[in-house]
Amino acid sequence: MHQVISATTNPAKIQAILQAFEEIFGEGSCHITPVAVESGVPEQPFGSEETRAGARNRVDNARRLHPEADFWVAIEAGIDDDAPFSWGVSDTGV
């Protein structure tokens, strides 16, 4: 079973991570552990660069807390001039 660290405690984001992993690896193939970590960017990031940095920072911080995991995943929502969007970052430690 894959140990996946979700760098968020947001239930909707955790569910999205679980669905993605089950689609790739099969139902029941992973255990998701949510952790609250800092993004290092404003609460509402603006623009792609800031939003991606927030997701990357969350993954890095989650990895420091749980180095034993198989995967670390973050989804960071941001806004741009004309629309909301998200960045997803995953890391396998390889």
TrEMBL record:
Alphabetical GO biological process terms: nucleotide metabolic process; thiamine metabolic process
SUPFAM superfamilies, per database record: ITPase-like
Non-canonical purine NTP phosphatase/PRRC1 domain residues: 7-81
Pfam families xrefs: NTPase_I-T
GO molecular function: ITPase activity; metal ion binding; nucleotide binding
Recorded catalytic activity of this chain's protein: XTP + H2O = XDP + phosphate + H(+); ITP + H2O = IDP + phosphate + H(+)
Domain of life from the UniProt record: Bacteria
Designated name of the protein: inosine/xanthosine triphosphatase
Source species of the chain: Salmonella enterica subsp. enterica serovar Poona
